[in-house]
Amino acid sequence: MESVKYARMPDIPVANRKWPDASIQCAPRWCAVDLRDGNQALPNPMTPEQKLEYFNLLVDIGFKEIEVGFPSASADDYNFCRNLIKGNLIPDDVTISVLTQAREHLINKTLEVLEGASNAVIHFYIATSELHSKFVFGLSDDEIIDSSVASTRRIRDGINSMGGSNIGLEFSPEEFTDSSLDFTIKLCNAVVSEWNPRGDEKVILNLPQTVERRLPNQYADMIEEFINRQKYSDKTVVSVHNHNDMGCAVAATMQTLLAGATRVEGTLFGHGERTGNVDLTTVGLNLEYLGIDTGLDFSKLNKIAKTVEDITEIAIQPRHPYAGELVFTAFSGSHQDAIHKGLSKKDELIRHFGGWKVPYLHVDPGTVGRVYEQFIRINSQSGKGGVAHVMETEYRIKMPRWVQIDFAKHVQKYADKTSKELSSHEVFSIFKEIYMNCEDPVSLINYWPRPADDDPKVIKGELHVNYQGDKRILKSEGNGPISAFVHALREIKDLPEFILEDYAEETMGVSAEAEAVCFVRVQIKNSNTEHIGVGLGNNIDQAAVASVLAGLNALINQSK
Question: For 442-559, which CATH superfamily applies?
Answer without folding.
Answer: Alpha-isopropylmalate synthase LeuA, regulatory domain (3.30.160.270)
